Each structure stands twice: as C-alpha cells, then as structure tokens.
C-alpha cells in the first residue's frame, strides 16, 4: 500500500480525484490538516487538529457494481476499530459512526468517471481522535472525540494502521458481494431499527417521519409511513 502524507492540504479527497489517473489502486492520502475538508451534502468537516484522522483512499476496483456501498463498508471498519478502545460505536444509516449518540466519524465517497463510465472512487474518512472539549462544543451538531470518551490520548499512527488493516482485510469480499457481504456486521452496530426516525434529504429540507424497519441487501433503508405503507429510502440524513 502506498501512503502519501501531507502536513496541510485543501482536501485529501480533492487531491485523490485530481491525481486519480497517476495514483495506484489502494493509495492512502493522509493529511495533518485540511483547509477545505468536505462532508456529505457539501458540508464542511472541521480539519484543523493534526491529531485527528483525515484520510482518503484511491480505489480502482475491477467490479464497479457495488462501489456505492463502500462508504457503509468503511463505517463497519471504523466501528470495529473504535470498539477496540473500549467504547460502543453505533452506525447511523447510511455511514455516520456515533458514540453515545454523538458523531465521531464521517465518511464521504466521490466517484470518478472516465468517458461517462465509472473508473473508481475516492473514499474519504474523518475521525475525531484527540480533541479538546471546546473544539467539540464549537461543532454545530452533536459530536465527540475518542480521547474524550476514553479519557486517554489516542496514538494516531496506531489507530490509522488498525483502520487501514481492517478496511483492506475483507475489501475484496465487499467488492464482490456489496452490502450483502458485510450486512450482518453492519446490523450489529445499528440502534435505530424499530424506532421512529426522521429523514432529511438535504440541509433545511423538511423532515419526514417514518418507522425504520430494516435494511435491504443493497444497503437501502426500509421504512413505513404513518399509513403503515412500506417505502425504500435510497439516500438522506437519518435523525432519531
């Protein structure tokens, strides 16, 4: 695995997309700081602490059928690693990782097209490892950091190696089978099934109320509405 490290960069995902053609499959891009860190729906990911994880993977799978599920696969890998530190992570559909209902990890996948066909993707992840309480409080949504949850400083290099090892351990299985290949593991980390939830398609959009029933074999959320009619949710923010 080739690892590229930067002290400061605009965005590891942007670097991966810009240099996609010349980077090897599986290249890891790591930065101590991002000036324009990105989250889902064009949100900003606060990226000023060099003791946190800002990582993007350049992936060029032979099978493109399941690349939309790689964010969920990464969420499972992150939850597994976090669990080794004595905390109890949960996955909030589709791919946010929480501890005590506060976000600790965000994941963003950006597809790369060549001649209007998928060539691969850049898969980014940010993990709050070592943050002070003041920084966490400044984030506009409930958030946390691993050091605050454990009461201990976290070794960044050790966590990073665990994350890379865990992700690539069963990567080929996820590539071949998609969500079905890791669905059982994913479900172990969910805490919202059977609950009333709200789905928001984008910031400032109206929230729609449902009951979360299940997740199908493609990783989509199955819900029922107020009339008990079943519906499949393909994307959006889950609130519960």
Q: How does this model look, in words?
A:
The protein is α+β, with helices and mostly antiparallel strands. It folds into 2 domains: 3-188, Bira Bifunctional Protein, Domain 2 (BirA Bifunctional Protein, domain 2); 196-239, SH3 type barrels (Roll). It has helices at residues 12-18, 70-83, 133-138, 146-150, 156-169, 171-177, 183-188; strands spanning 3-9, 28-34, 53-59, 89-92, 96-99, 102-114, 117-127, 196-200, 208-215, 221-224, 230-233, 237-239. The radius of gyration is 17 Å and the shape is globular. The mean pLDDT is 92.
Terminal residue distance? 38 Å
What's the helical proportion of residues? 10-25%
- The residue ranges in which pLDDT falls below 50 over 5 or more consecutive positions are none
Put simply, the count of helices is 7
Rg, Å, rounded: 17 Å
Query: How would you name the CATH homologous superfamily of the largest domain?
Result: Bira Bifunctional Protein, Domain 2
How many separate structural domains?
2
Structural class: alpha+beta
* Average pLDDT score: 92
CATH architecture label of the largest domain:
2-Layer Sandwich
Q: What is the CATH level 1 assignment of the largest domain?
A: Alpha Beta
CATH topology of the largest domain: BirA Bifunctional Protein, domain 2
Give helix and strand order, one letter per element, not per position. Answer: EHEEHEEEEHHHHHEEEEE
Coarse shape: globular
Strand order of the largest sheet: 1-2-3-7-6-5-4
């Amino acid at each position: 695995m080739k690892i590229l490290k930067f002290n400061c960069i605009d965005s590891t995902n942007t670097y991966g997309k810009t240099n996609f053609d010349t980077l090897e499959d599986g290249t890891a891009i790591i930065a101590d700081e991002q000036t324009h860190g990105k989250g889902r729906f064009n949100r900003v990911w606060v990226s000023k602490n060099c003791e946190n994880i800002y990582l993007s993977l350049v992936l060029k799978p032979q099978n493109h059928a399941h690349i939309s599920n790689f964010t969920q696969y990464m969420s499972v890998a992150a939850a597994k690693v976090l669990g080794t530190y004595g905390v109890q992570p949960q996955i909030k559909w589709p791919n946010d990782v929480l501890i005590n209902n506060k976000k600790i990890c965000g994941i963003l996948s950006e597809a790369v097209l060549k001649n209007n066909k998928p060539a691969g993707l850049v898969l980014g992840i940010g993990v709050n490892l070592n943050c002070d309480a003041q920084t966490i409080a400044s984030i506009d949504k409930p958030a946390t950091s691993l050091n605050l949850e454990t009461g201990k400083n976290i070794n960044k290099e050790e966590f990073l190696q665990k994350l890379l090892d865990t992700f690539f351990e069963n990567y080929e299985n996820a590539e071949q089978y998609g969500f079905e290949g890791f669905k059982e593991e994913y479900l172990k980390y969910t805490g919202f099934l059977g609950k009333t939830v709200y789905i928001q398609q984008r910031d400032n959009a109206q929230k729609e109320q449902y009951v979360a029933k299940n997740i199908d074999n493609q990783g989509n959320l199955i819900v029922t509405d107020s009339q008990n009619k079943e519906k499949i949710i393909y994307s959006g923010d889950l609130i519960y």
